[in-house]
Amino acid sequence: MFFGDFHPYYRNSWALVIGINTYQNISPLTYAKNDSDSIASILTSELGFLKEHVTVLQDKDATREAIFQVYLDHVHIAGSPDDRLLVFFAGHGVTLTGYQGYVGYLVPVDGHPARPASLIRWDDLTRNADLIPAKHILFILDACFSGLALKRAVYPGVQRFLSEMLQRRSRQVITAWKADEVVADGGGPEGRNSIFTGHLLQGLRGDAASKSGVLTAMGLMHYVYEKLANDAKSQQTPHYGYIDGDGDFVFVGPSEDLLSRPDKDHIVEAIPEPTTTSPQAPNYTIQAKLSFGETNGYASPSHPSFGRNIYSDKLGTFEFNGQREETKAFSWLAVVLEPAASQEININIASAAELETLPGIGEVRASQIMQSRTEDGPFAAIDDLLTRNVISESVFAEIAPLITVTQ
C-alpha cells in the first residue's frame, strides 16, 4: 500500500550540519563545533549517511549566505521524493518581538542580533522546505529562541506501521527551547558536548530506539525531552513537534538498512506521554476586577443605587407613598444585562468577533487564537496562549482578567 508517491524506504540520505564557536559580532561558544563534529560522525559511521552527502559548515564558513546556499542546494540534490534530509544547527539563537508575537532567528557567524537582515529567520527555512522534494526533513536546533509554530500530528499512545511512517511526508523539528531559558554550552553526559546534543547523541546510539529496534525522530525527540527535563544540570525543556505532514523521519529500522523495501512490516511501539511538567508560562498576579454593577452600587441591596442602571437618571423617577420608584422595565433590564456585560470570554468557543473585543486582539490575533485551538486542541488554561506563542506577554497581561477556558 502506498501513500502518495512515496515508498517504504529511503533512496538517499542528506545532511547539513552547522556548528559555530567563534562569532564575528557576539560572544563565542565552546562546544558548538564539537557538537557538529559529533553529529556528522554518528550520521556517517552509524546511521547510513554517506560522507559525500553530509555538508559541514563551521565558524568562518557558516555565513548567512553559505548556509542558505547549501540548504537550498537540496532543492536539486535531494531530488527524489524518497530522500531524507537532516539539518543540525549548534550556535546562538535570538528572539525578536513582532506585532503578532515572537519571531525566532538563528545567528550565523556574520550575524548581529541588532540587524535582523543579517540573521536567519526560522520560518524562512520552513517555508523553503516546501521546495525540497525529500519526503522527510528533520531540523535539530541546539539554540535558544521562541517563535516556533508546531503541532502534534501523531499523538502519544498511537501505534503505527514502519512502512506507513516511511510513506508519509513530514517536516519535524526539535529545539533546545525558548528565549527565556538558558541553553547550556557544555554539560553533556560525556563532557565534550552541550547537554542537549549530549543526550541527543546517546539517543541516536540506540537509547531512544523502540523495543523492536526502530529509531524515529518522534522517539528521539521524546527521549531528549525526558532526559533534559529531568537532568539536574539542565535549565531547559526542549520543544518538538511537526511543522507539516504526519510521517516520521526514521534513523534505524529493525535489522533493516532502510535503503530497500523491507521483507516484512513492523509495528512501532507507541510513544508515551511526557512524564515531566511542560514549560510554564510566567506567573501573573491578576487583581479581581469589579463588575460595572458592583462599581456603581447597582448590585448591592444596601447601596442607594441598588436596582438602578445607567438609564435611570435619564428616564426619571417618581414617588409613591414616600418611596422612590424607578421605571420598572429598565430596572429589570439592569438585572438581565449586567451579568452578560461582565462575563469573561471563553477563548475555547468565542467567535472571532467576540475575541476582537479584547484589548490588543485584532483580526490577525483572533484568527491565530482560533487556529491554535483547532490545530493544537482546546486551551487547558489561559496561560496556553503564552506557551503556544499565540500572543505576547504584554497583551496577555491586559486580557488575562477578561478571559477563561471554562464554561
Description:
The protein folds into 3 domains: 256 residues, Rossmann fold (3-Layer(aba) Sandwich); 50 residues, no CATH class; 60 residues, Orthogonal Bundle (DNA polymerase, domain 1), CATH 1.10.150.320. It is 29% helix and 18% strand. It is built from 13 helices and 17 strands. The strands form 6 sheets. It has a 6-stranded mixed sheet, with helices on both faces. Helix 1 runs parallel beside helix 5 and helix 5 crosses helix 6.
The dominant shape is globular
Radius of gyration: 27 Å
How many angstroms separate the termini? 45 Å
Beta strand count: 17
Q: How much of the residues is beta strand, in percent? A: 15-25%
How do the SSEs run, as a string of H and E? EHEHEEEEHEEHEHEHEEEHHEEHEHHHHE
Structure characteristics:
single chain, 407 residues, Rossmann fold, DNA polymerase, domain 1, 3 domains, 6-stranded mixed sheet, 13 helices, 17 strands, 29% helix
Task: Describe, in short, the structure shown.
By secondary structure, this protein is an alpha/beta fold. The protein is built from 13 helices and 17 strands. It has 3 domains: 13-268, Rossmann fold (3-Layer(aba) Sandwich), CATH 3.40.50.1460; 292-341, no CATH class; 345-404, Photosystem II 12 kDa extrinsic protein (DNA polymerase, domain 1, Orthogonal Bundle).
Topology:
Layout: E1 13-19, H1 32-46, E2 54-58, H2 64-77, E3 84-90, E4 93-98, E5 101-106, E6 120-121, H3 122-128, E7 136-142, E8 160-161, H4 162-166, E9 170-175, H5 195-207, E10 215-216, H6 217-230, E11 239-245, E12 250-252, E13 267-268, H7 292-296, H8 312-315, E14 317-320, E15 323-326, H9 328-341, E16 345-346, H10 352-355, H11 363-375, H12 384-387, H13 393-399, E17 403-404
